Amino acid sequence: MKEVLLLKYGELILKGANRSYFENMLLRELKTRIKRAGNFDIYKAQSTIYVEPLDDSCDLDAALESAKKVFGIISIGRACVCEKNIDAIFAATKEYIPQFLTGVKTFKADARRADKTFPMTSPELAGEVGAAVLEAMPRIKVDLDHPEVVVRVEIRERGAYIHAGQIRGAGGMPLGSSGRGLLLLSGGIDSPVAGYMMAKRGVTIEALHFESFPYTSERAKEKVLELAKLLCEYSTRIRVHVISLTRIQEEIRDKCDEDYFTLLLRRFMMTLAEKVARRNNCGALITGESLAQVASQTMRAISVTDAVVNMPVFRPCIGFDKEEIVEIARKIGTFETSILPYEDCCTVFTPRHPRTRPEIEKVEAEESKLDFDALVDDAFATLDTIDVRIDD
Ligand code: ATP
Ligand code: MG
């Protein structure tokens, strides 16, 4: 029996003149992601996207798993396709639909005819489909007002499609529809989650990682590339920029008050990030900060680091507890990699008593002991870019 996927997208957000812009982005993204599962025809008709296998090598389960991660899709259903005659539809309903109704007490049958040449009205057809379900499952009841599941047949150009029930899609906005953002990606738990959350709102992710070789290792960097790869499940292709902060950190260590090490470093990080973002058409920075999680994430500390940035900084984890962030990290599959024990540049030369209520004047005074611009230029010159893709 031939099976296809039916994907629904959030119609409300796709209204008006922008509609085809969003739809095309969504289709392009789906085609890229589902390619891995085989040769499918992917097209839209009447606010539904159809994913149809073109040959026997297609893996519909794998296609469904991929589709579940595509933002902009709100629900996914499987359907069987049969010939457009009532005997075939009746038999297919009996054979195919019961698997979706285990444990279900009430249903309603519904029919739609895109192909108006079909020689039955929609209510007549719905009646036949309902009868087929009742024949296969005598204990289930019909409930026209509040059915648990709707069993639907659609008469379309290529055949009759029969389906029942849906699973939830990833929701959110089609990738790319909100522009491009630069994710400051450490090896930790929070920043991959932040990237996922912004990708969900339609932001294509580009990443920037700071290393501090030899204080941080090659393996720490590999771990970050692995995290970027895992994030490609949600943002198909991620360019990862890597910048060395070694010289900056050594200068801060040698010349500045220890209590301010982290804050000073973070101001360099944000300055460099903005530079990378502007060069690569990213309209915002994204970090995994969560209010009060550590000394550098108090309200005052954040305002000190934000003072050097002239573009929006998105911090989607800001209101989350660690447990909530961990829950998302597990769901998106980054957690196990994030907890691998490699050092991060932020944990090199950490102050024993970091300031939680820093004063900007004091920070600027410490910073003036350094040649800020020259250090930024030097660090920027170490930039290396690695392309990470979903099918690498
Ligand atoms: P994470 O779990 O993402 O590492 P964290 O709670 O450990 O976050 P910090 O180390 O203070 O927090 O970093 C806060 C944010 O700064 C991170 O979420 C990330 O966006 C950015 N960041 C920290 N270290 C790096 C790094 N080495 N390279 C790029 N960005 C970094
Ligand atoms: Mg960290």
Q: What's the assembly state of these chains?
A: single chain
How far apart lie the N and C ends? Answer: 33 Å
Number of helices: 13
Following the backbone from N to C, one meets helices and strands in this order, namely: EHEEHEHEHEEEEEHEHEHHEHEHHHHE
| Biggest pleated sheet | 9 strands, mixed
The geometry reads as elongated
Strand content: 15-25%
Rg of Cα set: 27 Å
Number of E strands: 15
Q: Structural class given helices, strands, pairing? A: alpha/beta
The unique ligands bound to this protein are: adenosine-5'-triphosphate, magnesium ion
Summarize the structure.
The protein has 392 residues and is α/β, with parallel strands linked by helices.
Architecture overview:
The protein has 392 residues and is of the alpha/beta class. Helix content is 37%, strand content 22%. It contains 13 helices and 15 strands. The strands form two sheets. Strands 1, 2, 3, 4, 5, 6, 7, 8 and 9 form a nine-stranded mixed beta sheet that branches. β5, α4 and β6 form a beta-alpha-beta unit. The model has no long low-confidence stretch (mean pLDDT 94). The chain binds adenosine-5'-triphosphate and magnesium ion (MG). Adenosine-5'-triphosphate is lined by residues 184-186, 188-191, 208-210, 287-289, 293-294, 296, 344-346.
Keywords:
392 residues; binds adenosine-5'-triphosphate; elongated; single chain; alpha/beta; 13 helices; binds magnesium ion
Mind sketching the topology for me?
Layout: E1 2-9, H1 19-34, E2 40-45, E3 48-53, H2 60-67, E4 73-82, H3 86-96, E5 106-113, H4 122-136, E6 141-142, E7 149-156, E8 159-164, E9 167-168, E10 180-184, H5 190-200, E11 204-211, H6 218-231, E12 237-244, H7 246-255, H8 261-279, E13 284-286, H9 299-306, E14 313-314, H10 322-332, H11 335-338, H12 360-367, H13 372-380, E15 384-389
Parallel strand pairs: 5-6, 5-7, 10-11, 10-13, 11-12, 13-14
Antiparallel strand pairs: 1-3, 1-4, 2-3, 4-8, 4-9, 7-8, 12-15
Helix pairs in contact: 3-4, 5-10, 7-8, 8-9, 8-13
